[in-house]
């Protein structure tokens, strides 16, 4: 079942070819007469699908759909939008990174469960610029201390969330977490953070120390 040099196809035994790839001659490993292709999402009844037919749908707003090129039965390589393309919504913006749109709300929801969302900017401003376990822009391994975020990069440090569950729900996230209520000009803001090792949830990587994901 491995196509080698000078082979058009390789479907295995005669029985396997009959069941799985009738467009391939099991003896010669060549396409049968009048066949244009053997298999693949761009091949239908041994004929190539027209150029432009969608063979792989986009899975999200940062992904791109792929289309048959009219020359091969295989679907082209899976590609996505360039990193840095804007995504999300006006109230929950993000930038495409690695084919996904890692908005703050999505990241908070993954960690804190249903209802979890990004905290107010005041949380990022008050904590991430201080460089403590409850808010920072990473760890300086040499000095063994947390790095203070510059004000303009406050949203790139610790992920500050609100609402959702009382404890982190994401599997693998260290249970070291904090919940703080701050009051500014008579208005209260809930600020929740986690720390610990990285963990994969679906396609989303939760970085070390509960930092905001790239994008």
UniProtKB/TrEMBL annotation:
Domain of life from the UniProt record: Eukaryota
- Asked if Iron-sulfur is a keyword of the record, the answer is no
- The record places domain Disintegrin at 1-83
SUPFAM superfamilies with a match to the protein in the record: Blood coagulation inhibitor (disintegrin) (SSF57552)
Question: PROSITE patterns recorded for this chain?
Answer: DISINTEGRIN_1 (PS00427), DISINTEGRIN_2 (PS50214)
Q: Where is this region: Disordered?
A: 193-215
Disulphide bridges = 55-75
Q: Record's InterPro entries?
A: ADAM_Cys-rich, Disintegrin_CS, Disintegrin_dom, Disintegrin_dom_sf
Recite the UniProt keywords alphabetically: Disulfide bond
Q: Is Hydrolase set as a keyword in this record?
A: no
Name of the featured protein = Disintegrin domain-containing protein
Q: Which organism is it from?
A: Clastoptera arizonana
């Amino acid at each position: 079942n491995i196509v080698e040099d000078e082979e058009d196809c390789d479907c295995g035994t005669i029985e396997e070819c009959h069941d799985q790839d009738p467009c391939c001659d099991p003896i010669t490993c060549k396409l049968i007469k009048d066949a244009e292709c053997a298999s693949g999402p761009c091949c239908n009844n041994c004929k190539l699908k027209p150029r432009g037919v969608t063979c792989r749908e986009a899975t999200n707003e940062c992904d791109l759909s792929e289309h048959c090129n009219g020359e091969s039965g295989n679907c082209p390589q899976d590609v996505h939008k360039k990193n840095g393309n804007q995504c999300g919504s006006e109230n929950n913006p993000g930038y495409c990174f690695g084919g996904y749109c890692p908005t703050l709300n999505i990241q908070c929801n993954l960690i804190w469960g249903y209802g979890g969302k990004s905290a107010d900017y005041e949380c990022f401003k008050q904590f991430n610029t201080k460089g403590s376990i409850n808010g920072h822009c990473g760890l300086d391994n040499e000095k063994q201390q947390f790095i203070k975020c510059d004000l303009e990069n406050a949203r790139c440090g610790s992920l500050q969330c609100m609402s959702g569950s009382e404890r982190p729900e994401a599997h693998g996230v260290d249970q070291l977490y904090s919940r703080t209520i701050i009051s500014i000009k008579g208005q209260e803001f809930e600020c929740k953070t986690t720390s610990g090792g990285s963990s994969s949830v679906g396609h989303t990587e939760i970085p070390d120390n509960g930092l905001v994901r790239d994008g």
